[in-house]
Amino acid sequence: MSTRAARSRDDVVRTAGRLFAERGYHGTSMRDLAAELGLLGSSLYSHISSKEDLLVEVVERGADLFQSSADSALATSGPPVNRLKALVGGHVGVVLDHLDEVRTFLNEAGALDEVHRKRVLAARDRYEASFRAVLSEMNVENPKLAAIFLLSVLNAVERWYRPSGPLKREQLADEVFRFAMTGIKP
Amino acid sequence: MSTRAARSRDDVVRTAGRLFAERGYHGTSMRDLAAELGLLGSSLYSHISSKEDLLVEVVERGADLFQSSADSALATSGPPVNRLKALVGGHVGVVLDHLDEVRTFLNEAGALDEVHRKRVLAARDRYEASFRAVLSEMNVENPKLAAIFLLSVLNAVERWYRPSGPLKREQLADEVFRFAMTGIKP
DNA sequence: CCTACCGATCGGTAGG
DNA sequence: CCTACCGATCGGTAGG
Q1: In whole numbers, what is the pLDDT of chain B averaged over residues?
Q2: Residue A4 confidence class, pLDDT cut points 50, 70, 90
Q3: CB pairs < 8 Å spanning A and B
Q4: Residue B163 carries which DSSP code?
Q5: CATH class of B50-182
Q6: DSSP structural state of residue A111
Q7: Spatial contact of B24 and A110, defined as CB atoms under 8 Å apart
Q8: Residues 1-60 (A) near nucleic chain C, CB < 7 A
Q9: Cβ contacts (< 8 Å) between A27 and chain B: which residues?
Q10: Which residues in chain B are closer than 8 Å to A139, comparing Cβ atoms?
Q11: What is the pTM of this model?
């Protein structure tokens, strides 16, 4: 048996996402990443061309996942509240199923060069616009602010939710939706 | 006139807070910090003993500011909703007045060694407990989850609020409070 | 994917 | 607070 650790490009990107999410971009060295894959640092460069390119790819995966989720949610039929529910459920699903890409997308975009950072900000605004549009359809008083508040709650899920905790995955989206619709309720 | 740049320890800690907030702990070098103060890297060590100590000090300042705010808010008389309003107003005030320490406290605690990181988690839990206590007083259905959701909105203020924007500082706390109490409202 | 490197930069110290 | 350093580590390359 060979002791060679043959890795695909996707292995490299996914492992990079995990380390960027856990330790941050600047807190992760290329040798850290290689070691996680059972390689030496120099071996990474047959898969990718630079550390920065890796960050770009992980962040773009996060952006694409959110946008696909929104596009799908906006196609939901019925009253606008159905689409809002789909947006919330989709967002929670993306966070739970792609935690590493999501955390890197949300927390490490600042480490990108200006061109890519602006592209990420544009992607976030486009995603947020999906929320604003549905909230407008619902005749919410201040759709812009409501979208910010709702996304604040949704994005924070990454920071506190543990699948092993008392709150089951299906309940989570329901609870967020309920809080957004009616507040803390006495 | 001397060209010597005489700095106090507090100058060093405050400037470190700004850079840690903007670029992250691992994205800030001691030479970056020194240059910002008009010094050479080695000169920093007459003020502080290590980079890690600097992070500890900035993060602890953030923790203390939030806890002082909560202690003060909990002393508010009248029905519990008054105390909740004071907690929200206090939190927004701390974020806006001490943005660098807050951002470092919220985003860079992961770069601390285990001992200090656990201390920060304990400080956060104690602060969150102030919210849980007031929400319990208000007979909210799920005070623990309500506290998480409300703090999600409050902590996100650091990420999007611009004092130059349409929302004035005084309105911000009111809008967060209203969202927490009643949701998006159709 | 590894061996053998490269120049640059890192946090930090000794001594004045 | 500066001069003059230190060993360690950084991202990355040449060549096989």
Answers
A1: 96
A2: low
A3: 96
A4: T
A5: mainly alpha
A6: G
A7: yes
A8: 4-7, 34, 38-40, 42-43, 46-47
A9: 24-26, 111
A10: 186
A11: 0.96
